[in-house]
Amino acid sequence: MKETIHLLFSYGTLQLEKVQLENYGRLLKGERDKLIGYKVLKLQITDSTVLSKSQLEYHPIAVKTKNESDFIEGMLFEITDKELVETDKYEVSQYLRILETFESGKKAWVYVAKNNTI
Question: What is the pLDDT of residues 52-65, one digit of tens each?
Answer without folding.
Answer: 888 888 888 899 99
